[in-house]
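#lab-general

N.A. 3:47 PM
ok so I finally got the sequence cleaned up, no stray characters, all 238 residues accounted for. can someone with queue access submit it? mine expired

B.Y. 3:52 PM
send it over

N.A. 3:53 PM
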Amino acid sequence: MSELRVAAIQTSPVFGETVRNLEAALALVPPGLDLAVLPELCTTGYQFRDREELRELAEPADGPTAGRLAAKAAATGTTLVAGFAERDGERLYNSSLLVRPDGTTALYRKVHLFWDEKLVFDPGDLGFPVFAACGTTVGMMVCFDWIFPEAARTLARRGAKLLAHPSNLVLPHCPDAMVTRCLENRCFAVTANRVGREERIAGRRLDFIGRSQVCGPRGAPLARLDGVATGAAAAAID
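B.Y. 4:20 PM
back already:
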């Protein structure tokens, strides 16, 4: 793998403002990147009250979000990975879409659903595939997949040199755990998280921890943001 410039984009979406949220996220992508990773559910926000609300905001994998990502990728030469709510017939997934500058795409559907996600999303059915993109091999994980070592290990054994990891983290352990995942598997990881708070269900307040980061195989983050501000954690990797 030749040197790549990568970044984790940290956002603060407003629930339901899908177009505004994506525009704000893409505006944070620095120029000159090979790869940028946006957070989990970066267009919709996270805390859905029920499955019908999710269905109203979800979209196909080739829908408006994919189109906007493709336009940005084509204009900048940057491969983009973004988490979104996917609708496929009657099924609803917490998904991650990879979009290359030439317009081709790859899809991952979150396997390990967290907490109340199980009430609204269907578990992913695509396994853990690996894709060629931006001069390397990329495997996608979404948020809570981090807690299962087998997820990262499966991707690494299938040839992934880089883990693209859209997230909406509320637990404090993930940033340091991803350092371990990279050590274990001799790979890089780009974990893009959000900041802010949601309490759309009474008594279920969620505080998102930020700390988006780029990690490598040597036991320390290469770049990491704080838990408050939006922005980009960028690093050169090789």
